[in-house]
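tool_call predict_complex ligand=iron/sulfur cluster
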Amino acid sequence: MLHIDDLKVTLDADAGLVRAIDGMQLTLQRGETFALVGESGCGKSMTALALMRLLPDNGRITAGRLELDGREVFGLSEAQMRGVRGGRIGMIFQEPATSLNPVMRVGAQIVEAIEAHTALRGAQARAKAIDWLRRVGIPEPERRIDEYPFRLSGGQKQRVMIAMALAAEPDFLIADEPTTALDVTIQAQILQLLKELQRERGLGLLLITHDLAVVAGMAHQVALMYAGQIVELAPATEFFAAPKHPYARLLLQALPDAGKRGAALAAIAGTVPPLWLQFEGCRFAPRCDRAMRHCAAQPPQLSQVAPTHEARCLLYSAPGEALPAAAPARP
Ligand code: SF4
Ligand code: MG
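tool_result ok
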């Protein structure tokens, strides 16, 4: 089990101190998919980088605990952390160019991951690498295994990267928009593969996405993030059937067709506030269609609103007088 408690991350930026993540909590069980959802800039990717202790140079974890099967991870040395990264917790980044070595054949990179994290060696590791390339949908894997990354298309590089992460047989996988760049057929194949690995080996998947159709098809638990905080946390079925936070409701109302790929998250009016601001009240208030008078002054806490459902909204904890003009301006 992977458990994060009260994670806070700041970034030093020209505009000032950015509170990129402000009190994040989540629990990921083995065999389960936990989807982290939100517009870009809400802190999803930063959460992933913090978990892997791979924050950019201007980033800092200022509070929080990360436990992996009961063991605290943020306190580990960098050398110990290298043992965790890849083997225990794998990661698929948004941008494949950053994690493939351009001067090494793709097969050698996958074999390296297999030899570092499993008992297979030599010809067996190579056969396994070919098998992984096949499973992620690379055509003619026996031939492609000896290509250099520059010979592959962007989508193929993305798949090689996924193969490399899976080849290390991690217990947990953090996947940041793993299929966004891929075409629909390949996306479906990769998501199916992740589900199979979940069944076969109890892989725990932290899926970072802005695609609610992918969430609906994959996730057991959903956390919706807004401006560096979780605003709603629930089992996926409840999230879709009975969203509680006004932001969640607006997002789901704006979904043109839940079965359609790439269902846009940005379809609601307004933009995410810049995170160097000091917030006094609810961060969502400027965009909220249910905002009340005290929402601008009182910061809501994440609290239980149903037996297995949490939301960060004063409608549930401190209901009050509605604003006269309830609907926010459209863009
Ligand atoms: Fe809307 Fe107020 Fe709830 Fe914030 S606290 S989401 S402004 S109703
Ligand atoms: Mg991102």
